[in-house]
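tool_call: predict_structure(chain=1)
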Amino acid sequence: MTTTTLPPLAALDIPPPPMSRRVRLGLSDVVTLTRRELRIWFRNPAYLFFTIIQPMMFVLLFRYVFGGAIPVNVPGGYVDFLMPGIIAQSAAFASFGTAIALARGLQKGVIDRFRAMPMARSAVLLGRLVADTLRLVVTLLVILAVGYAVGFRFHNGIGPAVLMVLLGIAFGVTICTVSAFVGLAIKDEESVGSFGLVWLFPLTFVSAAFVPVSSMPGWLQAFAKNQPVTIVIDEMRSLALGGPLALHAWQSALWLAAIVAVFVPLAVRAYRRAT
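tool_result:
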């Protein structure tokens, strides 16, 4: 009986797809994962309800409970002073969802399953950020509607009003990059939720969101005046009510760019290590 020896199999030299096709496939993966996140939210309307109801409660509480006790010198009174701060605070708090969802995905092995699929790895983070951005837009529009119902008005025209909303969205997306790093680095859902309160509450409340910085103790004013939340809120307030724009505009842009430049690489690194 003779033995037939087969020739060794030659490795197939398959060239990688062109860059345009890889970008197209990557964008398709981002859209798919964005749809997945949106479907999860729509199937859990209680989550969307509480996402929107919390900032609405802040608007009503500060407008009618605390507003009469906080003197401000702006056109329209305290409600017009308040709304840019509420928008910035709500944008920051909306980033909780990014951190908690990524930590939950790591705990349940969802991100590991995504990694095993033939898809762009960056799509997991990008799809999450895109979905959170869409949710943030809806939340801010609802807040503006409630603000208009309780007396808030823009005093500086339509263009600056649109820029104020866009700045609020950009601020929220920037904070989402920080939350993405926190969620991927800590990995535990409950710990992530607790840690979010530790760093977001001081930043949003020790700022110009709800009271003039000049009303704070002198030792606290130095921090409140120069931290990013106050600078962004001051720019949003100037866009809404009128006032000097140039100084806070470049400071806001510098802060947001610096935060993104620091925390996007950190989030990507934490994502690679976590998976």
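agent: The chain is about 75% helix and 0% strand. Proceeding to next step.
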